[in-house]
Design goal:
Layout lengths: L2 H9 L5 H20 L3 H26 L5 H21 L6 H23 L9 H28 L4 H26 L5 H25 L6 H20 L17 H21 L5 H41 L9 H5 L1 H4 L1 H4 L4 E9 L1 H8 L1 H18 L5 E6 L2 E6 L3 H13 L5 E3 L2 E3 L2 E9 L8 H17 L4 E3 L34
Parallel strand pairs: 6-7
Antiparallel strand pairs: 1-3, 1-6, 2-3, 4-5
Helix pairs in contact: 2-3, 2-9, 3-4, 3-9, 4-5, 4-9, 5-7, 6-7, 6-8, 6-10, 6-11, 7-8, 8-9, 10-11, 15-16
Length: 517
């Protein structure tokens, strides 16, 4: 929550402790009136008072917080009026004008659906369909249970008329509403108090509809006042949500990280348990019911299989990425030091019985560039140098960032081919580097150690030690490159001279080097 929202919350009528206690206490007392005094007129007056209070609170919240997208709140207000009108026609007119109550209730559902769509649309995560799949599976599980325990009994309890079909449609709409709520809960954050209150209101609507559907199916007999209580709670909760400062951010684009994966998996597991009980509980279902239950059950199982497959693929990708991070330097994308030390074991079949050479590359004057331009430019230079080295070597050669401005190339080459590769590597540094700080000229020194015997005693450690010594020598005498074997002879091989470089000094280690250790 931003500081402006916090300041607005301090001025709000639902943020101070006294106001909160008074508001919640007043709503609780008002909602409890129909349960304490069994009066039809009093119940109707209470419902109208609650609706009027909720609308007033929504209007006050819109004026106080001025959300960027007020349309969903207007739709919720309209839905509250339609639900109240439908409830009045259904419970307080003795069914004299029956079709109108259903029309009002269905229109109220439509308003809630459009409002939820407007709020959830900016929260979609591109390329992430797991959340949509999980929400759909939760809705399918609810629809499967609804068909067995609610829809089928409603259709069998009376003649198939338009009123019966509409009554059976309510559980279907509730399953869709549950899907939307599950999707919204998974993308909500702890700071979005207003959205969480709306979730509570939608759950209250679902509880009230469940009670009405059970009574319509003849499964249970529930009093009018008890059935009305969840709807009154929903009205009050929506009003309180509109007063909270976080209502202004609903519907605004924001970065969403879907979470609660375990909770969604638990809900899906419950749906599967319910589905497994359907054949036992619904043993007396007719042919049409069995076809519907089997179809929904099949869709649920297919969805679970798809979800499991996607979870396996996601786990495999995470494992591959973790292995990549363990073996590579994140700044350059090259192998890191630990991976270089294991490269012979990994490529032993490919490099068996071949001569092996290791080229140790060090950038000349890097410390001065790093001290002059800063670590960010230094990292930029390291990344560009790694890219040039990678373009010069062959595809199967092992290239690693050994540390700081040191690079290693390990390849199955003889001494002559290693000299050619060293010349090409030095040539890659002739052209200055185009960095954010401007053109930066950098040369390199290369030390080469070769092992023609390829016996079991030779290791990467020996080659690195020898090539590092040769690189010191090449840097000290500005030779460009030097072979370790030639350091013990008085006559050095003809090497390409380069500009005089700085003496070997303490290496700068960039922040990104931590991944290479």
């Amino acid at each position: 929550m931003t500081s402006s929202e916090e300041r607005a919350g301090d001025r709000g009528c639902c943020t101070g402790n006294i106001w909160c206690v008074a508001l919640l206490g007043g709503w609780t007392a008002l909602i409890s009136v129909p349960l304490v005094f069994e009066s039809r007129a009093l119940t109707l007056m209470t419902m109208l008072a609650v609706v009027a209070g909720a609308l007033t609170m929504i209007g006050s919240g819109l004026l106080r917080h001025r959300p960027a997208q007020p349309l969903p709140w207007y739709l919720l207000s309209l839905s509250a009026v339609l639900f109240a009108l439908g409830t009045t026609l259904r419970d307080f007119t003795d069914g004299a004008i029956s079709p109108l109550d259903d029309i009002c209730m269905l229109a109220g559902y439509l308003g809630i659906g459009v409002a939820a769509t407007l709020w959830l649309r900016p929260r979609q995560v591109r390329g992430n369909y797991d959340l949509l799949l999980d929400s759909a599976l939760i809705g399918l599980g609810a629809l499967l249970a609804s068909w067995t325990f609610l829809i089928s009994p409603i259709l069998q309890s009376r003649a198939t008329t338009l009123t019966t079909v509409v009554a059976a449609a309510y559980p279907i709409l509730d399953a869709l509403l549950l899907t939307v709520v599950a999707h919204s809960v998974a993308t909500a954050t702890r700071s979005e108090t207003s959205l969480r209150l709306l979730h509570l209101a939608m759950v209250a609507v679902l509880v009230g509809d469940l009670g009405n559907s059970l009574e319509t199916a003849g499964t249970a007999t529930i009093g009018r006042e008890v059935l009305l209580t969840p709807l009154l709670i929903a009205y009050a909760t929506v009003g309180i949500a509109a007063l909270h400062p976080t209502m202004a951010s609903l519907g605004a684009p924001r970065q969403i990280h879907p979470h609660h994966s375990r909770q969604r998996a638990s809900s899906i597991a419950v749906a599967l348990i319910v589905a497994s009980l359907v054949p036992v509980v619904g043993s007396g279902l007719g042919t049409v019911d069995r076809v519907m239950v089997s179809s929904l059950f099949a869709l649920l199982l297919i969805g679970v299989l798809v979800r499991s497959e996607r979870a396996i693929q996601r786990s495999a990708r995470s494992e591959r990425w973790a292995q990549y991070q363990a073996d590579h330097d994140m700044l350059t994308g090259l192998l890191n030091r630990s991976a270089l030390l294991r490269v012979i074991d990994r490529t032993s079949a490919h490099w068996r019985d071949q001569p092996l050479c290791l080229l140790f590359i060090d950038l000349d004057g890097f410390k001065m560039v790093n001290d002059s331009y800063g670590h960010a430019v230094g990292d930029e230079l390291i990344a560009n140098a790694a890219s040039r080295i990678r373009r010069v070597v062959r595809r199967d050669d092992a290239v690693a960032r050994y540390g700081g401005d040191e690079f290693v190339v390990l390849a199955p080459l003889n001494k002559q081919d290693a000299a050619v590769l060293a010349e090409r590597l030095l040539g890659a540094f002739v052209r200055p580097f185009e960095l954010s700080a401007g053109e930066v000229p950098i040369t390199a020194s290369v030390g080469i150690a070769c092992d023609s015997r390829r016996d079991s005693e030779a290791t990467v450690y020996d080659l690195i030690r020898d090539a590092d010594s040769a690189m010191y020598h090449a840097k000290e005498y500005s030779l460009g490159y030097a072979f370790h074997d030639d350091l013990r002879h008085p006559q050095l091989p003809a090497s390409r001279p380069v500009a005089a470089s700085e003496p070997r000094s303490r290496k700068w280690r960039s922040n990104a080097e931590s991944t290479a250790v």
